[in-house]
């Protein structure tokens, strides 16, 4: 399994933003041209991109779909996309654009069997389930509602249902640029056999290498690459 580093492009109101802990109004970064940001990471050597429609996640409406389409059509790279993907038709339309992997959060938690149907229809490698954890419990609806469920338990469930991979986000350290909390990620990696991609708090090359050494399949970096704390180019060089 090759470890992958994913620069994040989070979309909100037509801009590329980074929030603290996913809370609207806490923008650390708000840049006008999301395509230009995506092109910037490609120029630094990235051939993978992590794109989240925050309006979709919070409002349940994919209002940034035109920007997503523009990025996917313009750039030839591996993309995983989430945020506001609520129906099987949403998944089909996103994958038909040329997106490589669709990330399901709220929809999968409400209807786990949907994951099975989508994996059968599109191939499990194209279906990723997001488990976003706050103080040990999984959240839903753009991190606004907390369930009394643990990531390991739900990770095993979605593995059984046919998910090809899991995106694990530790909200407690998300966007704070203070580094990662490795143990929750380790616990999930130990609980499942499918690949786990980790997000939340990735601030340094050491964080990325620690996640790789913990057995994850990849790491997502957001705020730190926009503020200059983490260099995409140097991270990719360190992984090589």
The counted number of beta strands is: 12
Q: Order of strands across the widest beta sheet?
A: 1-4-5-6-7-10-11-12
How does CATH name the architecture? Alpha-Beta Barrel
Instruction: Find the CATH superfamily.
Output: Aldolase class I
Structural class: alpha/beta
pLDDT averaged residue by residue? 92
Provide the domain count: 1
Q: Overview of this structure, please?
A:
The protein has 240 residues and is of the alpha/beta class. The chain has a single domain, classed as TIM Barrel. The protein is built from 11 helices and 12 strands. It has helices at residues 34-43, 54-59, 65-74, 88-97, 106-110, 113-122, 151-161, 182-191, 205-213, 223-227, 232-239, and strands at residues 4-12, 15-18, 29-31, 48-53, 78-82, 101-104, 127-134, 137-140, 145-146, 165-170, 196-199, 218-221. The chain has an 8-stranded parallel barrel with strand order 1-4-5-6-7-10-11-12, surrounded by 8 helices. A hairpin with a 4-residue loop joins strand 8 and strand 9. The longest helix has 11 residues, at 151-161. It is globular and about 40 Å long. The mean pLDDT is 92.
């Amino acid at each position: 399994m090759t470890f992958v580093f994913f620069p994040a492009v989070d979309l909100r109101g037509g801009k590329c933003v980074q929030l603290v802990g996913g809370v609207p109004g806490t923008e650390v970064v708000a840049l006008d041209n999301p395509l230009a940001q995506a092109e910037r990471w490609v120029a630094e050597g990235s051939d993978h991109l992590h794109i989240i429609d925050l309006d979709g996640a919070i409002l349940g409406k994919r209002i940034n779909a035109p920007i997503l389409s523009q990025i996917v059509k313009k750039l030839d790279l591996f993309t995983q996309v989430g945020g506001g993907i609520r129906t099987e038709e949403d998944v089909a339309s996103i994958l038909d654009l040329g997106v490589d992997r669709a990330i399901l959060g709220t929809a999968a938690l409400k209807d786990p069997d949907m994951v099975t149907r989508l994996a059968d229809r599109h191939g499990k490698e194209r279906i990723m389930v997001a488990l976003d954890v706050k103080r040990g419990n999984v959240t839903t609806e753009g991190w606004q509602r907390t369930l009394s469920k643990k990531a390991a338990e739900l990770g095993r469930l979605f593995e059984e249902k046919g998910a090809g991979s899991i995106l694990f986000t530790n909200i407690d350290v998300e966007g704070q640029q203070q580094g990662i909390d490795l143990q929750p990620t380790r616990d999930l990696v130990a609980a499942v056999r499918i690949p786990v991609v980790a997000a939340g708090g990735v601030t340094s090359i050491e964080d990325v290498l620690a996640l790789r050494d913990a057995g994850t399949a990849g790491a997502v970096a957001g705020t730190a690459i926009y503020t200059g704390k983490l260099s995409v180019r140097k991270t990719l060089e360190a992984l090589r």
